[in-house]
Structures are given as C-alpha cells and as structure tokens.
Amino acid sequence: MKKLAVLVMLVISAAAHAQQEKQEVSLVFGLNQPLVLHGFNFEANYWTKKFVIDYSHGFGLRFRDNLVPPEARGQHLAFNITHSLGVGFGYRFTESFNLRIEPKLHIWQMYYDDAFRMDGGRIKTYTTYTLGLGAYYRWMPFGNSEGALRGITIVPSLRWWPNVGSSLKNNEYEYYNLHTEKTEVHRANNIGVSNTSWFVNVSVGWTFLKNKKGK
Questions:
Q1: Which of 81, 85, 106, 164 has its CA at a distance of 20 to 30 angstroms from the CA of residue 42?
Q2: Rounded to the nearest 10 degrees, how much is the dihedral formed by the CA atoms of 52, 106, 3, 27?
Q3: In sequence order, which residues have a C-beta less than 8 Å from that of residue 164 and are 6 or more positions away?
Q4: Contacts of 22 (CB under 8 A, 6+ apart)
Q5: Does any domain span residue 179?
C-alpha cells in the first residue's frame, strides 16, 4: 500500500511540472466490465501534448463459473471485486497511441459459489496490488468535425498487470472448505483473463475539447 501511495505522489508531481500546450480531459467507460463481469468501470484521463494521466475505478466485478480458474472451481469458489482502482502515467508516442505505467489495487471477496454475495457464504476478503503497463489507442472518429459528435471517444487497450503483492501472508490463504470437507489453499488471484496478468478491453466515452485539433 505504501508503494502505491508513493507512485501516486510521483504521478501527481509529474503532472504538476508538465508544461504542455495542449490540455484535454476524457471520461470513458469500459465495456468488458458490464458485459462480461456484470459490474461497472469508469476512467478519467488528463491529456497534455506528450503525456496522459488517468484515474480508473471498477465496482462490483463478478468472477464466476468459466471466469474462475480451475483450481478455484475445484474448491467451489466465486469472487466479487468490490473495488479495482488506481492511476496511470503515460507517454503519447503519437496523437492516438500511448503507453502507461499503472499501479492498481483490487479488493477481492471470496465466496462459495452456491452462496455468492451472501454474508453466510463469504470466506475471506483480501487485496492484491498490481504494477504493470497498459497500451492504449484513443480513436475519435469525428474529431475533425464541427458537430456534436466531435468528442466521441473509443479506446481499445491491452494491459499487463502482474501481482506485486497482496494482503495475504505469502500471497495465499489456508482454510477449511465446507464443500470439499478438507483444508484447502487459495492462492491470490490475478486480475486478468483466465487468472493471468493480461486482459483487453474497449472503453467508450467523451473527450472535452477546447479547440479543433491543430489550433
């Protein structure tokens, strides 16, 4: 947690010292979170000519059935992420493409799958900490127009967020499982696809532009 706080301070400090001509703000919403994980996510971006700073926050992300790794399925487990949040600081290689360093934290609630999100079915709550990279492409299909659609923003992304720590001792939790009727070990989840550090997403939203590009 202390490492994350230090990184956040470094990002804010870098933003305060960035003297850039172009400044914009975007607000976008991830599509995977509601469509796949039945939750919600928003991301706010602050753009300068060469840099981007972001804050993102996901809520109520559900990992059940095929979204749970085989080891956890064998223990009859399901997971709810109450909050997944953090910041990012990136460099704009082009007007559209940028690469970001991203410290994040993710709060997991661990349940028996037949008592998901029920107080009596909760086994453990823990937090994982990730530090990785995100590659983003900001596409504004009507960015050169004068109309009301000008600010529409579509952002496909590829992210690599490996765990760098967790609130679990040795990143695992030993407990007695009521379904298997034996002592089991749960290893801290990864945030990505199939319990890996990788995931992709597409976000849509709006960029608030002061002037047309190039002015």
A1: 164
A2: 20
A3: 3, 129, 130, 131
A4: 47, 48, 49
A5: yes
Question: Domain span at residue 65?
Answer: 2-15+22-207
Please tell me the pTM assigned to this model.
0.86
What is the reported pLDDT for 20? 46
DSSP at 139: B
**How far, in Å, CA of 89 to CA of 102, rounded?**
7
Residue 122 lies in a domain: yes
* Cα–Cα distance measured from residue 163 to residue 171, given in angstroms and rounded to the nearest whole number: 10
Is 212 a domain residue? no
pLDDT tens digits, one per residue of 177-206: 999 999 999 999 999 999 999 999 999 999
Distance of CA 22 to the CA centre of its chain: 26
| DSSP alpha helix (H) spans, the chain | 2-17, 32-35, 70-74
CA distance 120 to 126: 17
Total domain count, the chain: 1
Q: Look up the CATH number of the domain holding residue 10.
A: 2.40.160
pLDDT in tens, 127-168: 999 999 999 999 999 988 888 899 999 999 999 999 999 999
* Within-domain flag for 40: yes
* Nearest Cα to Cα of residue 108 among 62, 174, 150, 149: 62
CA distance 147 to 127: 45
Rg of the chain's alpha carbons, rounded to an integer?
19
Q: Quick one: how many helices (H) and strands (E) in the chain?
A: 3, 11
